[in-house]
Design goal:
- The structure is a single chain.
- Strand 10 and strand 11 form a beta hairpin.
- With 494 residues, the protein is mainly beta.
- The longest helix is centred in the first third of the chain and has 13 residues.
- The N terminus is likely disordered.
- Helix content is 7%, strand content 39%.
- The strands form seven sheets. The protein has a six-stranded mixed β-sheet with strand order 12-9-14-19-16-17, with no helix packed on it. It has a six-stranded mixed β-sheet with strand order 23-22-25-30-27-28, with no helix packed on it.
Length: 494
Amino acid sequence: MPGDRPLDVQLSRRHVLQWGAGAALLGLTAACARNENTEAAIGPDSPQVRTFAEAESRRFPGGRPVAYELTAAQSDVDLAGTRTAAWLYNTQLPGPVVRANVGDRVQVRCRNQLPDPTTVHWHGLAIRNDMDGVPDVTQAPIPAGDEFVYDFIPPDPGTYWYHTHGDLQRGRGLYGALIVDDPAAPANYDAEFVVVLSDWLTDRTPTQVFDELRGGRMASMPDMTSAALGGDAGDVRYPVYLVNGRTPADPVVFTARAGQRARIRLINAGDDTAFRVALGGHRLTVTDTDGFPVDPVDTDSVLIGMGERYDAVVTLQDGVFPLVAVAEGKGAQGFAVIRTGGGAAPAPSVMPAELAAPPLTVADLQATEAARLPVLDPAVTLEASLGGDMKAYSWTVNGQAYPDHTPLTVHSDQRVRLVYTNKTMMWHPMHLHGHTFAVARMDGSGPRKDTVIVLPGQTVAADIDTTNPGQWITHCHNDYHLAAGMATIFSYVD
């Protein structure tokens, strides 16, 4: 049954110790310890997590079994004729699309052929805690040469993604799209384009870049700025920006027929880059963010931070059009082509007129009536103060750099308001595992999200219904900020 852990992937203290001192250690034993208020933390092996899994099985009694296999291994990737070292799932960049229906029982066997331990996180899905894929918070990392079977039921349709949660591993290529379909939803589009955006290092590894940041040799450049991001656009200027693993010199080409209605699923899998996305000659109608529907909004472009997803629909014109993903504030772009007819493709350096206007952001969106949380006064308000020291390259939540942390404790079946306050000069895309929250607004219209951009000096409040017991990390989805400590634990206690 879905509540059972496969016998060949039982957790062990040996697996925990093999992760080593360099990772962000919480420890399964520590996660289940009692806090200073003598309340016991509900860990991934707690009865409440099994009860949640059993309830999900009853909620979706007709779910079909869906099986995938992912092998994480070292490989080379061909970028416009240049070979570069990578870590990939199934030798693909991005990894294979994982697709299932709402309520299916998804089982993904992950084989680790990397030299280091690893995990897989199912970003945005509110699944059972022991399948969330965070090293030493929800599972022991998978040792080199070992495997783990992830076993979960996707509860909500939408655009999601999966990626390693190993320390600074994602930027080496370990990510892919995860699409959850609703068979009962009306078919209101003719074509679908899954678009995975990323930044890519060709001559260094993310670990080497992190060491340079920590050593003060790679501080933010003055010209890496963006008004849309509140100033500083990022910490790293990349050699190349990819769309579906392809460079602008060798772009992916999406094909359809003129007059067709296309659904574009945008996923930002980058480490340090927000993208401003536009389709030349078209206006986009944004319909969903982070898997949940919003009242449709027409826009020329959309700003998407690391970890975020946006769905847009567009009626395609006749011809060849550039799909451009500007690396916000970094003076470069990713590039793809949408072709519905004859003609030469535009140049990779093209700057569509649609990029000139300010992009759509979360402030422009409101949840559909069906997606809204009921308006309730929060039973608990929690503060997550985002801090940092750029010179030392240390990033904190509530003054602590993870793994040092004081858990944000909650009980089941509460309305909790989690308030992210950014006291730094850098923007942060904050992600909460295991939940979809509502961006708090007085009228309850805030869009449902699991990742939200918090600009410098800004406060964003997230309303959460605590219906998924366990230990859940909340962190900045800039992978370098996470590695430098911008994380804490959203901890259910009993």
